[in-house]
Amino acid sequence: MKKFFGYILTPIVAVVFFLTLCVFHPLQWLAYKLGGYSAHKKVVDVLNLCLMRSLYLSGNTTKFTNNQHLPEGRPIIFISNHQSMFDIPPLIWYLRKYHAKFISKIELTRGIPSISFNLKYGGAANIDRKDQRQSIMEIVKLGQRMKENKWSAVIFPEGTRSKNGKVKPFRAAGIATLLKKCPDALLVPIVIKNSWAVIKYGYYPVNAFTQMQVEVLTPIEPGKTPAEELVLTAENNIRAALGQAPAKPYETK
Predict the structure, then answer these.
(1) Quick one: which of 124, 217, 223, 219 has its CA closest to 179?
(2) Strand locations in 106-182, DSSP E?
(3) Which helix (H) or strand (E) holds 103?
(4) Angle at 125 between CA 124 and CA 130, to 5 degrees
(5) For the chain, which end, N or C, has fewer CB atoms within 10 Å of the first or last residue's CB respectively?
(6) Within 10 A of 187 (CB to CB), how many other CB atoms are there?
(7) Are 155 and 216 in contact (CB under 8 A)?
(8) Is the dihedral of CA 38, 43, 47, 53 positive or negative?
(9) Helix (H), strand (E), coil (C) string for 12-46
(10) Residue 213 forms beta bridges with which residues?
């Protein structure tokens, strides 16, 4: 039944989603040119609220839970599992006061209304996966921006989206690089549930009447613990929240 309604409602969602991107593109440009970073960020925040709500047109909702008392004015590295593109708007909106920046593929900085502009000028690290040196330097620059501006970052250590909700092994390299440039950052795991179920049939049809859940888990103080151990702890906390078996140390790359 959900799939049936998905066939009917997905075109509506797609049109509203795309029009939202188109409308906010010039608004971002104006905000950035006239008001700089602060004005641009406010527009991006509202953009992502609208993108998240566009999915509501198919009966899909997002439940965000944060029972943690996260510090403001301190860099945070949010470590999350990744299930679909619909993960991103809720993370930007609900984590907006932490100025969370993403590590994204450089291909996304071209040709996509609103999204490409934000990735270019909003402080993200845009990496070329075919160029390891460039990728490392982009993450180093992000770590420096985090340290100087007290910004945060969202990183998906799986490296790619999970199509069935099963967590893939986390990779520690990006987080290790951020911690080297920004050693005072707090690590905060985030678990995403059921985002994969929204697109279990692909992007057409979007699976209707599904609740996606985003939950902030207990923060991890890095101290002098090796990055690999920190990432493994974050991964296993996320796995536990999803009811999945823990990863063994050698599985984390």
Answers:
(1) 223
(2) 125-127, 152-155
(3) strand 100-105
(4) 145
(5) N
(6) 22
(7) no
(8) positive
(9) HHHHHHHHHHHHHHHHHHHHHHHHHHHHHHHHHHH
(10) 63, 193
Strands 211-216, 186-193: pairing kind: antiparallel
Q: Residue 134's pLDDT band (boundaries 50, 70, 90)?
A: very high
- Could you tell me the pLDDT band of residue 250, with boundaries at 50, 70 and 90? low
Per-residue pLDDT, 1: 85
pLDDT in the model for residue 252? 45
* Structural element, H or E, at residue 231: helix 227-241
Segment holding 196, helix H or strand E: helix 195-198
Question: β-strand 211-216 against 61-66: which pairing, if any?
Answer: parallel
Q: Which of 194, 200, 232 is nearest to 64 (CA)?
A: 194
Count of residues in the chain: 253
The two tokens of residue 87 are 């993960």
| Res. 23: pLDDT tops 50 | yes
Q: What is the pLDDT of residue 63?
A: 97
Torsion of CA 245, 247, 251, 252, to 10 degrees: 140
SS3 assignment, position 133: helix
B/e letters for 138-167, b = 16+ CB within 10 Å, e = fewer, are bbbebbebbbeebbbbbbbbbeebbeebeb
* 47-to-13, 27, 34, 40, 245 alpha-carbon distances in Å: 15, 10, 18, 11, 37
Q: What pLDDT is recorded for position 148?
A: 95
Q: What is the DSSP letter of 185?
A: P
